[in-house]
Amino acid sequence: MEDLVEKPWKPLSRKVPIPPGILSPYRLLVMVRFVALFFFLVWRVTNPNMDALWLWGMSIVCELWFAFSWLLDQMPKLNPINRAADLVALREKFESPSPTNPTGRSDLPGLDVFISTADPYKEPPLVTANTLLSILATEYPVEKLFVYISDDGGALLNFEAMAEASAFAKVWVPFCRKHGIEPRNPEAYFTQKGDPTKGKKRPDFVKDRRWIKREYDEFKIRVNGLADLIRRRANAMNARERKLARDKQAAGEADALAAVKAATWMADGTHWPGTWLDPAPDHGKGDHGSIVQVMIKNPHHDVVYGEAGEHPYLDMTDVDVRIPMFAYLSREKRAGYDHNKKAGAMNAMVRASAILSNGPFMLNFDCDHYIYNCMAIREAMCYMLDRGGDRICYIQFPQRFEGIDPSDRYANHNTVFFDGNMRALDGLQGPMYDVVTGYRMHNRGWRSVYCITRRDAFRGTAPINLTDRLHQVLRWATGSVEIFFSKNNALLASRRLKFLQRMAYLNVGIYPFTSLFLIMYCLLPALSLFSGQFIVATLDPTFLCYLLLITVTLMLLCLLEVKWSGIGLEEWWRNEQFWVIGGTSAHLAAVLQGLLKVVAGIEISFTLTAKAAADDDDDPFAELYLIKTVYAEIPQYSKLLGGGFFSFWVLAHYYPFAKGLMGRRGRTPTIVYVWAGLISITVSLLWITISPPDDRITQGGIDV
Fold this sequence. Notes:
The protein has 704 residues and is of the alpha/beta class. It is built from 23 helices and 16 strands.
C-alpha cells in the first residue's frame, strides 16, 4: 500500500453539473410558482364565500396542505447533479505494476456480497442461482470477492440448488471471462434478443456458446427437478427407517416405531438440520438450527490459468479459472423470538463474514436482482476510494426491472424517483432509498453517493399485476407513517442534517397523509352540486390570473425536470397516473394501518385488490377542482366542454387501473365498453344540466 501514496493522484470520479441553461430556468420557475402560490392562498383566505363557509373552509385546508406538500417535494430538487467514474484511473492506481508489486496484483479492497432469500416456493431457486452466477462471474479480483447467501427458510431445496450452481460456476465463470459476455446471468444472457456473435472475435465462440447453452439447459432441468427429487428421497429413506423400526419392534423394542419421524434427508443419507418437508420440533420454518457451509473455498491469490486439454469441450487456456469464495448460511431460529426478518438475516451474514472473510465493504442483493454490468462494482469503488471517500457511508444504485409490459402501465420502472428525485438528493447529502439507514447515517454527518452507470448496473423483477403493485405501495407508505411517528422523524434530526435534506426526509414521512386531503378535496364538487354553493363566491380576474400562472409554471417545471433527469414524457405521465391510483387507495389504507399499529399496537395484514381501489373513482380530480369552479358561471355550452374535459381527464388517469382490472374478453377489450358507458352517462348528465326539463336552473347553473 506504500506505492499508493507515492503514485501521483488522479481523480477517480467527478461531478458533472446540469447545464445552466436548464437548471437556472428551473430554479427561477420554482421561485415564481412559490410566489404565485403564496399570493393565491392569501387571496383565497381573504376572500371567503360567506354563503358557504364550511365548503370554503374545507377547500382552504386542502389547498394549504397541497401547497405545503409541493414545497417539501420541490425544494430538495434545486441542486441535481450527475457523476462519472474513471475506471482507467482506478486500474492505474490499484492494479498497475510497481517496484513492490511487480506482477500488478490488485490492491482493491475485499468485498463481502450478501444475497437474501426466504421461501423457495415464492422465490424460485433457479432465480437465486442465476443471481449467484452473475455475482461469481463479475469483473472484480477473485481473491477479494466473497459471496454469502442467507436462506431464512432453512430449506434443503435452496441448499442443493446452490450446490448445483456452485458446480455449474466452474464452467460458466471461465466462459464469461474468456469471451467477455454481458450480462453474466445465464438465463438473461440466453434469452436476450439480438445477434450473440456481435463483437466476438474468438473463432471458437460459437462452439463454446453452443456447448455452454446445452450445459445450462441440463443445469435448469436438475434445479427444477430438485423439489421432486428431495421428496422422493425423503419418502424412500423414511420408508426404510419405518421398516427397520418394525423389525426392531418385532424383536422386542416396543417404542422403536414411535420414534421414527418423517424426516427430510440430505444426499449423504443424514437428516437435514434445517426445515423439513413435514415440520417437526426443531425442524420447522421458524424453529431450526443454524447451518453454515462453505461451498466454494477461498481461491489462491495468484492467478491460475487453465491448461490445454484440461476440459474436453471448453478451451480454458490463458483464462483465469479461479472462482470467488461462496458460503451458504441459514441462521438459527427458535419459536417465541423476534428474528427481525431480513434485518436479522443481514446481521447473521455480517457475523459469519467477519470470521470467514472480514471484507471492509459490503454489497447487498435481493435474490431476484442480478449484476447486469460486470464493471458496476468497480465504478462504485471509484467513489469509495477517491479523495473524500472516507466521508461516504454507502453507494446507491438505481433499480432497473425486467418483465414489465412495454407501456409500463403501473409505473414499475419508477424512473421519476430513481432518475429524478435520487439524482437531486445526490446534490445534497446523498440518496436515501432505505430511509431509516440513510437518515441515521446522514444525521451523523455522513454522505452517500448515487451511482448511475451507462449500462444498467443491476436488474431485477417487479410486480406484474395491479394487486401486487398496490400491495408494494402499501408497504412503503405504511413504513413512512411508522417512521413519521418514530424517533427517526426528520423534525428531531441533528444540525448535521442539511435543511433541504431534512425537508426530503420529512416529505418521506408525511406523503401518505396527502391521501386524506385528496379525498376531502374530491368530495367538494359533489357537495357543491347538492348544496348549490361553490368554494368561491365570484370569479375574480385576479383569481383567474393566479390560477393560470400556477398551472403554466407547473407544466413548465415538469418539462424542465424531464429534461435534466433524462426521463421520457411517457414515463412521467405513467408516474402521474399511478400517483393518482396509489394515492387514492394504498396511501389511505397505509395511513389507517400505520396509525393503528403506532397508536393501538394493532397490526393488520391484508392485500389490496383492484376492486377496493376502484371505489375511489373520483380521486383523479384532486388537483383540478379549482379549475372546475371557473366553469360555474360560464355560459351553458361552455359547461359541456368543461365537464367533458374533466371527465376525460379522470378516464385518462384511471386508464391503467381500469385496463388492469377489466382485462380483455374475446376480441373486443372490455375497457371499450366501460369507456363507452362512462362517456354516455357523462354526456347525458351534462346535457340534462344544460337543458333541464323545468326552469329551476338558470344560466349561471345555480338554483333560484
